[in-house]
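task queued by scheduler; priority normal; single chain, no ligands, no partner chains; default sampling; output format set to structure tokens
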Amino acid sequence: MQDRPKCSLFIPAYNRMQSLPRAIASVLAQTEKDIELIVVDEASTDGTQDYLATLGDPRIRAVGREPGRPPQRLGVSTARNLGLAAARAAVVTFFDSDDVCRPHYVASHLAAYADD
């Protein structure tokens, strides 16, 4: 992966341990590998933060909790804005924590931008 990935995807998540692993797996299984996935944890209390800490894929970054500050619920709009601010790619896409994307999801987005 280059310093700047081709596409940034971000997922806001609040207490979504039931669906988040499946959503993340579908993003990581993309045919386009030059991506980054930003998961914005909204102060989950169900182990989401612990789960995110176990993921060793360098394409994944967790944001949302500031060191030294108590966690607080952000709301989906603020979470998406944090994800957008953290994104390094010129092409970004929102993704929900209960979504599952097909393997060519990112490639089709990139193709649409290239054609425009």
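post-processing summary
- Helices lie at 20-28, 48-54, 76-86, 105-115.
- The first strand starts at residue 7 and ends at 13.
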